[in-house]
User: Fold this.
Amino acid sequence: MTDSIVAPERDPADVPAFDHARAEAAVRELLAAMGEDVEREGLRDTPARVARAYAELTVGLHQRPEDVLTTTFDLGHDEMVLVRDIELWSMCEHHLVPFTGVAHVGYIPSTSGKITGLSKMARLVDVYSKRPQVQERLTTQIADAMTDILEARGVIVVIEAEHLCMTMRGVRKAGARTITSAVRGQMRDAATRSEAMALIRSGTR
Ligand SMILES: Nc1nc2c(ncn2[C@@H]2O[C@H](COP(=O)(O)OP(=O)(O)OP(=O)(O)O)[C@@H](O)[C@H]2O)c(=O)[nH]1
Ligand SMILES: [Zn+2]
Assistant:
């Protein structure tokens, strides 16, 4: 593969605003390419609807991780914090169909004990999910943002997801789950990592 999984992150300031007119024209073309009658009643508003839907599904291209990891508290807490089973919906950049599953995000705060609001970790997952993605990049981006912005001493991110491009088309293997992980800093320590994995697995239903 020539394209890097860990593509350099684009500054959201450099990403042009979602072009609704262009997206509508493209959807109209796609429908025409399918042989559909784009003027029939049921499809008349579809290009505009799809454009709005894709604007929503890619809103993360315009968001910065540092804008969601804003609320930090210096609690002096220096033990592991882990939020498990954060629901995620993203879009595979190869087929533009969803992949969905859960993210588990854990970290060991900085030596100063800088922690973030728990909901902010879920918001961070959303920022990176709402873009054309591959699961590996999504995983590393979340881990790197936690490390850089919170100055976390250790981070673990595990994502379990089902890709609709493998389920509803192509190889058609419903139920196959892809698991990716990214581990940083002190979380690489064998004992700490197994503690985190045990906490994540304790939720396996
Ligand atoms: N590594 C990785 N691969 C993905 C992800 N999402 C989709 N893919 C894969 O991307 C690949 C694209 O392969 P291609 O051969 O170019 O496309 P294709 O002919 O549609 O492939 P099939 O899905 O096998 O029919 C497929 O194997 C997908 O399963 C992801 O998040 N990570
Ligand atoms: Zn795909």
Remarks:
- The chain has a mean pLDDT of 93.
